[in-house]
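Hey Z.,

So I finally got round to the zinc ion thing we talked about over coffee. Here's the setup:
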Amino acid sequence: MKAILHIFNYTCGNCGKSFQAPAALHSSYGEFLMRSERGAEAYLNASQDLTYSEISEAIRRHSAVARLKARKQAEVVQAIFSSLCDEDSDGSEFRIGRLPACPYCGATQISHWEATEPPQLVEKELAAVTHKKWDGLSAAEKEAFLNEALSRLIAV
Ligand SMILES: [Zn+2]
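And the result:
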């Protein structure tokens, strides 16, 4: 799918060089750019992904999550969703919110980032993230996966 992305400026926390990389333009509407460890990108439109809404509801209903602040709840949902998506060909997770690696030294510590202003936009052809493995699980397996992920992420 074609996605309109917003170019951000990043400063590497390791070598100090600056570089540009895209981020989702409409993240407030549930559109996310997901990245694997090697920097491959996949797109997620959360409002159109039934699995996203399904697990988001299930997780937010959980008593240990319901008492968290909205921002933390969103982080938990995004982390768990990332972990159930099909992996990149290098075996790493496509993660919502994973920052790009420095193109100069390969480090993933970013010391500073900001959106270009006025916004520089770029149109990119991106594959939608998939979760075929998850789709094939039984209801009981899905529940077990969510419970295990929740106990890993928060004290339940
Ligand atoms: Zn660097």
